[in-house]
Every structure is written in structure tokens, then in C-alpha cells.
Amino acid sequence: MGAVTTLALATAAGAAVMSAPAGQPETKSTGSAEAGRVERVDKKVNYLDGQSSATFHYPGAEYIKVHFAGLLLLPGDFLTVSNPDGTEEHRVTRAGWAMSVTGETAQVQLHRTNLLSDVVAQLGVTIDQVSRGFTEREREEVAKRSRERKNREESVCGNDEKLDAVCYKSTDPVLYKRSKAVARLLIKGTELCTGWRVGALNRMMTNFHCIGSAEEAADTEVWFNYQCAECGGYDVFRPTKVWLSEVLASNSTLDYTLFSVSSFELIQKFGYLELDVRRPGQGEELYIPQHPTGAPAMIALTSDQDAAGNCAVQNPAYDGYDTDTDVSYYCDTEGGSSGSPVLSRSTNKVVALHHFGGCPNSGVRMERIFTEIQSLI
């Protein structure tokens, strides 16, 4: 008989938001975006009472994510969490948060392969929490509160000129291709940041203030190809989801975390980004593929705060968490954009790791980060 697996109740805390050190401008802000909320439930999936499945339905929710407080199954038996038509299905191998299911309904199913019956009455699965994504109305309410909160709106500098990544599929295919290497991070079921592939190996990067430790990395989903199908449209491609596997390196001052993912073979087709390890020049044109507020991939390319109308370097020697760590710009970003790559238009390589809002917004220069991670990538 299989062993009991128990995990402490998860919280909805998500990623921490770090305060700027003494002497830094108070207008700077960091942070992940809210994705949804945790609902407390008390549901059991058992062997003998006919409850071999459970359905969770929250009308309008973007996703459903089920938490298993304990698993006690017979050898060979297993659980799945899927959407109603079975086009997205994830096998559950441990207690804790299962991989999310896109959409408003999730089904938990116990699959039996073992026919033992003398002790099965005491076996089963306990579901104590469900994390579900916001509905459209809830997302609008969260966005409104964020705009009213001091400095949160300042990450969009002037008019919001970000566009869906797919808008560049024909007009600038290089930008579109680069956006494919950028992923949405769903942290602890309710918090959002952005991450991206670094080089050809199984390496990804985001901010330390999004994921700074192995504990914070646990139960983090990495969504690739979360993009709109048409420019300005509402239909979204079904994302390819993998788990964050291991934190490989991190630094709170330079605000980066390097990590790997599970099932790397599933996301290799989306490509990767290369690093440009130099200080970019003032006025150099930039672009930022990102998941602002956890939305499908967008790209910031222009800015009405720049004299030439470009997303461009405003100050190549800007202070972040330390002196002269960052490059600043007026490219539009929002909560959830934390961890996005900042690319040079001239090289199409990453020159900075976005982490601050405040207009100007800023990112840590890759020349500063590269010295610490070069042996790992």
C-alpha cells in the first residue's frame, strides 16, 4: 500500500515585493501582479463511496488550480486534473498544488488499476483548496485598484503603447520570434511575473523579487506560448505549461534568479534569447516582450515620452538597488512585467533585466549579471 503524503497548507502570499534601499527614489516600484484568489474547499475523492471524481467550476475564471492536502492511493493508481473535454490533462504525482487547467472548470479523476478491497475504505484524496484565476470583471477591479495605488500607474509612462506580440508577426517577425522565448510565471497559484529562456541550455531568468529561494520556487508554473492568436483579438493560444525545477543562482542586489524547468523538451521549440554584455548607449532603441498584469504576451516598442517616439535608453548609468546597476527607459511596463528581458533593437539581444517602475522604469544591465552566471549558461 502506498505511503501517505502530506503537505502544509499553501498560502496566497505569492512573491515578495522588495523595498528600495536607503537613498533610492521613492517613485520606484517593483512587484508581481495578482492572478486570482484561493478558495477554501473540503472535498474528498474516495474508493468505496462512489466519489471517484470531483468537479470545480467557477464561471468566467481564467484557470483552475487544485491543491491536494494529502494523497493515500493504492500502488499503480493515480489521479488526473483535466478540463471537461480532456484536451488538457495533468497527472498528479504528489501532494500540494497540481498544474493549473486553463478555463473555468477542472475535473479531478481517480484512476484505479489495483483491485484490492480490504483496506480501500480508508484510502483516498483530500482537496482543501482551489486557486482560480480572476474573471474579467475581477481583473478590471484589480487593475483599477492598482491605478489608484501610489506609483503603480507610473510604470505606464504617458499613453500605454504596448501591443500584442502577434501584432508584429508580419511587420517585424524578428520581434515576434523573440517574444516566443518569454514566458508567464504563475507563482503559488495567485501571483504573476515574467521569465525568459537564457541560451540554448535549460536555463531561465526572472527577478529575485519574484522568485528568490527554493521555497518560493516551489509550485511555480512556467507558461510558454501564452499569446493572442490575432492582433487586438481575444482568442489565446493554449499555453505549454512546465514546472520550475531548480533555482541555480540568485542575487537580491542585482535582482535576478536563474533557474531550470522540468520537461525541458516541451519548450525548446519556442527558442531562446542571447545576452548583450555591454553598457548600452544613451538613446539606444530598445524593446521589451513581457506579460504585463499576466496578460498574453505584449511588446513595448515605442514611447510618447521619448523625443523620437522610441522605447530607448534614457540613462545608461541608473541606480537600482545599488549604484550604477541599471539602465533606465520610458518603455511601458506594468505589474507582472517584472523579470522581462530588455532587448536592443540593433542586436536583438538582451541588455537588461526589467525590474523597476517609476517613469523612468529600469532594468539591471546584463553586463553586471553576466559575471555571476557565465559559468552556468
TrEMBL record:
InterPro entries: Peptidase_S1_PA, Peptidase_S1_PA_chymotrypsin
Leader sequence residues: 1-22
Taxonomic superkingdom: Bacteria
UniProt-listed SUPFAM superfamilies: Trypsin-like serine proteases
Keyword Membrane attached: no
Keywords carried by this UniProt record: Signal
Identification of the protein by name: Serine protease
Origin organism lineage: Bacteria, Bacillati, Actinomycetota, Actinomycetes, Micromonosporales
